[in-house]
Amino acid sequence: MYRLNFPNTPLYHGDIANLTVEEALRLSGLAEGELDIFDGSPPCQGFSIAGKRQFHDARNQLFKEYVRLLRGLKPKAFIMENVAGMVKGKMKKIFAECLTELKASGYRVKAKLLDCSYFGVPQMRKRLIFIGIRRELGFEPSHPLPKGPVVSIMEAIDGADTSGVPELNDRYGLLYDQVPHGKSADYVIGTGYSSCVKPHPHKPSPTLPKTQTGRGFATIVHPYERRALSIGEAKRIGSFPDDFQLTGSYSEQWARIGNSVPPLFMRQIASHVANNLSQHVSERLAPN
Q1: How confident is the model at residue 88 (pLDDT cuts 50, 70, 90)?
Q2: Residue 82 is inside which H or E element, if any?
Q3: Whole-angstrom Cα distance, residue 161 to residue 230?
Q4: Is residue 188 a part of any domain in this protein?
Q5: pLDDT of residue 5
Q6: Tens digits of per-residue pLDDT, 212-233?
Q7: Does residue 116 carry a catalytic annotation?
Q8: Phi, psi (5° rounding) for residue 118?
């Protein structure tokens, strides 16, 4: 999918554990220490609130591969993203381990929960963002401030492609009619039924789940129309451009959006870090 959308960008396709620092530098055309920002999102399913948080999930250890590359590449700054569940319950142990490892790699580090909806994304989606600055650069990392305006789901999906939208079966169609805006099936049936989420039309969408099968029912539905959301609408809610190409079935394309970090959100974080780097490096180089 990355190659399909970014054909001119160097791409390593393989197990991250097998990617050497030397190969990463070769692909980027940079030398050690020249990279401005190293961005990565270690797999987060083991931390997710939506699933069962598993402290011993093998995927939780993949952040160590990120740290390995961080120490080898020695970028001026890094950004590391994970889900909000990482700072809850037993997962706090892994959060603390992450901070320790990142700081021990030679960086000043700060972590903060940010809501994508405050950064122009039409989706209420919280993400834990680690930002680090190489210690020798002499300044502290910071996170961007919220940047409006807040965009509602209806503003976002207006005019989006609605082709290939799965229909709701009769049972879910009736359920749809009874669920008010801002509620889900548990409002009608009882606690434990989290499907048929009907977004409030004048607010950002709830967090898009990674699962949306399109088989007669839907985890999240259209605010006004008795149907699931289309892939085109999901792309808008995830802040992907309309021409971004996705592959696979409806449920597979949906999962790619549901598992993603909204690009508009990450662009604002990366721009903030880049601007800070530029400002402080310029100050260091300025004549006295």
Answers
A1: confident
A2: strand 77-83
A3: 7
A4: no
A5: 96
A6: 876 777 889 999 999 999 999 9
A7: no
A8: -90, 5
From the candidates 44, 98, 116, 196, which is the catalytic residue?
A: 44
Residue-wise burial string across 167-200, b where 16 or more C-beta atoms lie within 10 A, e elsewhere: ebeeebeebbeebeeeebbeebeeeeeebbbbbb
Instruction: Note whether residue 248 is domain-resident.
Output: no
How does DSSP classify residue 198?
A: B
Residue 61 lies in a domain: yes
In the chain, the number of structural domains is: 1
Question: Is 26 contained in some domain?
Answer: yes
Lowest mean pLDDT among 20-29, 170-179, 202-211: 170-179
Other C-beta atoms lying within 10 Å of the C-beta of residue 288: 2
Residue 204: asked if its preceding bond is cis (omega within 30°), the reply is no
Q: Which residues contact 14 (CB under 8 A, 6 or more apart)?
A: none
- Structural domain of 94: 2-146+262-285
- Name residue 197's amino acid: V
Report the relative pairing of strands 37-40 and 77-83 from DSSP bridges.
Answer: parallel
Q: Which CATH number goes with the domain that contains 93?
A: 3.40.50.150
The answer to whether residues 75 and 112 touch, using CB atoms and an 8 Å cutoff, is: no
Q: What is the pTM of this model?
A: 0.89
Residue 96 pLDDT: 87
